[in-house]
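Quiz preparation item.
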């Protein structure tokens, strides 16, 4: 039976001299979930990944991956890793790269490699020095997924991919997660994380500021509500409601920004005989950005 947590960090801390890259990180990534890891540049996301994979050692605290210490060779073979910047020797071909990683992991399943290469339109026979930035990124994607790992650690995975291939990558992540793999997704693309992840963690200056389900965050997002009336209506009855952040009125349209529950807005709209209510989906991106910002 697989462990209930694919990644578990307790008090994980990493200092580089006076720089506190990660501080007292307590984090659990559940087996089988897609977990989004977010934060501004310099927040400590890549440092966390390097600690998870035992590329660097913690100043204090500990981290386990797939139930073991990450330095264990057998554990590493069960992980697929796509770094933010993949260093590849330009003299070799993607086929050479896949053979190299295959030897480290116990062999290459060439039908899987070829299917992934075809899916991302990657020529595995060309020298890497002749490939575009996007095609080099495809090499990284294939090597991360080709051995069907139990845990995928993806650092800015769609950087350099065009929109069509980004969509294809998202489908691949969903399929892989559906087969039971765990995905740890570090990305600056907020819409990407919102689309793929079940839970997210927000990191700021090396410390966790929030861990929550995406649907929970969406419920806290401010909603924009447009109310249509057959006559001119004053915005004041709505502006007096505690959950209404902003209210404006023009002709027969009242526009609201609401934080929290909307029952009071709906009761007031019904009392004033609104004929139509339009509310686009709450803007989760703004919640992320608010959590990124330093408190004032």
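Solution:
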């Amino acid at each position: 039976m697989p462990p209930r947590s694919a990644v578990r960090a307790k008090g994980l801390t990493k200092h580089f001299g006076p720089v506190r890259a990660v501080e007292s990180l307590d984090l659990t990534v559940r087996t089988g979930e897609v977990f989004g890891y977010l934060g501004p540049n310099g927040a400590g996301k890549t440092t966390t990944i390097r600690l998870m994979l035992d590329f660097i050692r913690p100043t204090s605290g500990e981290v386990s991956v797939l139930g073991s210490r990450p330095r264990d060779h057998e554990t590493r073979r069960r992980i697929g890793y796509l770094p933010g910047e993949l260093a590849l020797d330009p003299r070799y071909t993607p086929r050479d790269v896949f053979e190299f990683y295959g030897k480290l992991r116990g062999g290459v399943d060439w039908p899987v490699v070829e299917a992934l290469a075809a899916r991302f339109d990657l020529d595995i026979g060309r020298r890497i020095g002749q490939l575009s930035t996007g095609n080099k990124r495809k090499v990284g994607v294939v090597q991360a997924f080709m051995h069907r790992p139990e845990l995928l650690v993806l650092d800015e995975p769609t950087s350099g991919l065009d929109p069509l291939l980004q969509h294809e990558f998202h489908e691949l992540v969903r399929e892989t997660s559906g087969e039971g793999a765990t995905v740890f997704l570090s990305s600056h693309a907020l819409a990407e994380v919102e689309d793929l992840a079940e839970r997210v963690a927000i990191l700021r200056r090396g410390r966790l500021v929030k861990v929550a389900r995406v649907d929970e965050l969406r419920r806290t997002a401010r909603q924009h509500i447009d109310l249509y009336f057959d006559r001119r209506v004053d915005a004041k009855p709505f502006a007096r409601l505690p959950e209404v952040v902003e209210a404006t009125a023009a002709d027969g349209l009242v526009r609201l920004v609401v934080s929290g529950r909307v029952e009071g807005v709906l009761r007031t709209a019904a009392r004033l005989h609104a004929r139509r209510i339009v509310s686009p989906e709450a803007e989760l991106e703004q919640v992320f950005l608010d959590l990124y910002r330093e408190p004032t």
